[in-house]
């Protein structure tokens, strides 16, 4: 590898596609010693470049009832702290999976999961909306996932066209 940044980027690209990749396999792919790759991964974990490892689950196939919602939140930023304090207050709720500062008509995008639509709606109305800086919210429920984190979630369908032979 020409430099450390390139090495790190190659490691990260491979790990992003498959977080379970074996370090030995990764070192072979990159043409490096396993110890070199292992040391870089450990260093990136220590520096919080690699923030965690996650498993993507298709909950629909488990029989577990889950509702995923995307909530746009418009807020008034706080003096000297912008959106950070509000975002921190929101991301500390255990049902919240992610909080993003976004551009556009809203300021924050919050993703969360609950057991029912009512449970998610109650979170928005009882916990999120009453926060002083929150001006408005818009809630969208995920009805079906086609692709998530780069993984296609639906099986490929066979062509519905009839085969015509002469």
UniProtKB/TrEMBL annotation:
It comes from the Bacteria. InterPro entries: Dimeric_a/b-barrel, Tscrpt_reg_AsnC-like, Tscrpt_reg_AsnC/Lrp_C, WH-like_DNA-bd_sf, WH_DNA-bd_sf. One of its GO terms (molecular function) is sequence-specific DNA binding. Pfam families: AsnC_trans_reg. This is Lrp/AsnC family transcriptional regulator. Residues 71-144 form the Transcription regulator AsnC/Lrp ligand binding domain. One of its GO terms (biological process) is response to amino acid. It comes from Schaedlerella arabinosiphila. Signal peptide: none annotated. GO terms for cellular component: cytosol.
């Amino acid at each position: 590898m020409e430099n450390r940044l390139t090495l790190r980027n190659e490691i990260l690209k491979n790990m992003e596609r498959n977080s379970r990749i074996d370090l030995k396999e990764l070192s072979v792919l990159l043409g490096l010693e396993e110890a070199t790759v292992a040391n870089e991964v450990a260093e990136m974990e220590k520096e919080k470049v690699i923030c965690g490892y996650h498993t993507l689950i298709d909950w629909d196939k488990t029989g577990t009832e889950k509702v995923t919602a995307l909530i746009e939140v418009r807020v008034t930023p706080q003096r000297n702290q912008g959106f950070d304090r509000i975002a921190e207050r929101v991301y500390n709720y255990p049902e919240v999976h992610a909080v993003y500062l976004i551009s556009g008509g809203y300021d924050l995008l919050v993703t969360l999961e609950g057991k029912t639509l009512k449970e998610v709606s109650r979170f928005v109305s009882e916990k999120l909306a009453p926060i002083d800086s929150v001006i408005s919210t818009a809630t969208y429920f995920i009805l079906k996932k086609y692709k998530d984190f780069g993984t296609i979630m639906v099986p490929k369908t066979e062509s519905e066209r009839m085969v015509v032979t002469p």
